[in-house]
Design a protein that fits this description.
By secondary structure, the chain is α+β, with helices and mostly antiparallel strands. Helix content is 42%, strand content 20%. Strands 1, 2, 3, 4, 5, 6 and 7 form a 7-stranded antiparallel sheet that branches.
């Protein structure tokens, strides 16, 4: 498809930017602390040096200059540098320029744009972590049509205080025409030390090996009993397209969605990344159209029991049987083992006292 990426890089009409900034939700407007803190870092060393020079005298400070003086002045010199870095980051990320450019890009290409969205309520694994305290998506670019597509960045905050953890992902959501079994393709390219980058651990017994060199690029997981369905969906031509175009992404098929996941942002100001993403979307959308013919034979078996063994086309049901809707997740035992070892260690330490 032909994309107009000029709004991502062209000069900005600042009058239009000011008007656009007033429409932004409060969640993405500049926070007072993000601007005040850099100025505090700038002001402190200036005030501190002024007080030292006034109390001691400039000549004495220069005369007593030594290596210890240098070490003493390091924090004073570093604070303005930190302040400038914080201020630049705050202004770049929260002055509306980013949102203004992506909004212009979306409108130029007949997409819709939302700078911030709570949730969203999607079935993918990055949206459904347990114990979450807040979740939201930013720079949400969407396209209605065939198929509907959304590209955005997602932030998930789990826990609070010292136990607070922030997870950030970029995602592409392609709406399918029919629900499919929960299938995950773990991209081998983004694994670290053999550990998948997926946000959840999947049971190893669900891994299915496919022909050719597909396993070098992806580890495919499908629900137990759905191996033949996975082979039906991932024909050699489909596997080739995924290897050629989506090997950098973790992929999940769940309900009637196909998700591409990446650690980091996907909705950005990078024209080349947008071209790559939408090219991948177009190619995969063409290939997965053949999946709309898939039907879960387990549901047909239920209908056959009602109709005496014959399932007319008009009676065939869309959807997935309960056992195929979600993959089984692997229990994380490391924290249990760690707790047991800690108890044993405390016991050995205090057994004489006890």
């Amino acid at each position: 498809m032909t994309l107009d990426t000029s709004p991502l890089t062209d000069r900005i009409d600042h009058r239009a930017l000011r008007a656009f900034r007033r429409t932004l939700p409060s969640a993405v407007r500049p926070r007072l602390a993000s601007v005040v803190l850099p100025f505090v870092f700038l002001a402190f060393p200036v005030v501190f040096l002024a007080m030292v020079l006034k109390g001691v005298g400039f000549d004495r400070v220069i005369g007593d200059f030594s290596s210890s003086s240098v070490m003493f002045l390091v924090p004073v010199i570093a604070m303005p540098i930190i302040a400038i870095a914080l201020l630049v980051r705050a202004l770049r990320s929260r002055n509306g320029v980013r949102q203004f450019r992506i909004d212009g890009f979306a409108r130029a290409n007949s997409f819709s744009y939302a700078p911030w969205s709570k949730g969203p309520q999607l079935p993918g694994m990055i949206f459904s972590r347990q114990g979450q305290s807040s979740a939201y998506s930013t720079d949400v670019v969407s396209r209605e049509g065939e198929p509907p597509v959304t590209i955005a960045n997602h932030t998930l905050v789990v826990g609070s205080g010292k136990n607070r953890t922030v997870h950030r992902w970029g995602y592409v959501a392609i709406r399918l025409t029919t629900p499919l079994p929960n299938i995950v393709l773990d991209a081998q390219k983004n694994n670290e030390w053999g550990r998948p980058a997926l946000p959840v651990a999947l049971s190893a017994g669900q891994r299915l090996s496919l022909e050719g060199d597909f396993d070098r690029h992806f580890a495919l997981y499908c629900p137990s009993g759905y191996e033949a369905d996975a082979l039906y969906l991932f024909t050699p031509d489909v596997m080739a397209k995924f290897i050629d175009n989506a090997a950098a992404f973790d992929i999940e098929i769940v309900d009637d969605y196909l998700f591409l996941y990446a650690q980091g942002e996907l909705s950005t100001l990078d024209p080349d990344l947008w071209k790559q993403l939408l090219s991948v979307v177009e190619i995969l959308s063409q290939r997965v159209r053949q999946w709309e013919r898939w039907r879960d034979e387990r549901l047909d078996a239920e209908v056959a029991g009602w109709t005496g063994g014959v399932v007319p086309n008009s009676a065939r049901r869309e959807g997935v049987a309960p056992q195929g809707r979600r993959l089984a997740r692997r229990a994380e035992w490391w924290w249990v083992i760690g707790g047991i070892l800690a108890v044993i260690g405390f016991y050995n330490l205090f057994k004489d006292i006890l």
